[in-house]
Amino acid sequence: MTTLLINGKEHPIDAEDDMPLLWAIRDLAGYTGTKYGCGIGLCGACSVLLDGKQTFSCVTPVSAAKGKAITTIEGLATEKGLHPLQQAWVEQDVPQCGYCQSGQIIAAAALLKQNPHPSDEEIRAKMGNLCRCGTYQQIFAAVKRAAEIQGAQS
Questions:
Q1: Domain limits of the chain?
Q2: pTM value?
Q3: In angstroms, rounded to a whole number, what is the distance separating the alpha carbons of residues 47 and 41?
Q4: What average pLDDT does range 66-91 have in this prediction?
Q5: Homologous superfamily of domain range 84-153
Q6: Using alpha carbons only, what angle is made at residue 143 by residues 58 and 43, rounded to the nearest 5 degrees?
Q7: pLDDT tier at 154 (50, 70, 90 boundaries)?
Q8: CATH for 2-75, options being 1.10.443.10, 3.10.20.30, 3.40.50.1220, 3.50.50.60
């Protein structure tokens, strides 16, 4: 038994230390916004923030998350409303099938935390999650828009 801090709340988890964090988040804590994609840490659908850094939860053991803050897609919005990235995703009409979107938004959150005003080149270089529908131009535009929204809110 261990406790994981997910989206600001402590969750007692009955899991082996080597269980992939993805399954602890989805199956044991009930946060199903984090998706299973490839299972080998390549596609990014399983992305979460671990102490603010993008982490592929499908290849990260539960033991690596102990004592760290885990943020899933469900943890980005606040009582005040959508996170600027979620707002920009809607404005830019990004999703097509939508499967990769939670991981894309998490990757973008990590990028904007590291660099609140990235250039177009930096966005293209840092947004490495896969989108099977190919909505990369909309994704890049939404990241740029979210940076504008965050700048206006500060």
A1: 2-75, 84-153
A2: 0.95
A3: 9
A4: 96
A5: [2Fe-2S]-binding domain (1.10.150.120)
A6: 25
A7: low
A8: 3.10.20.30
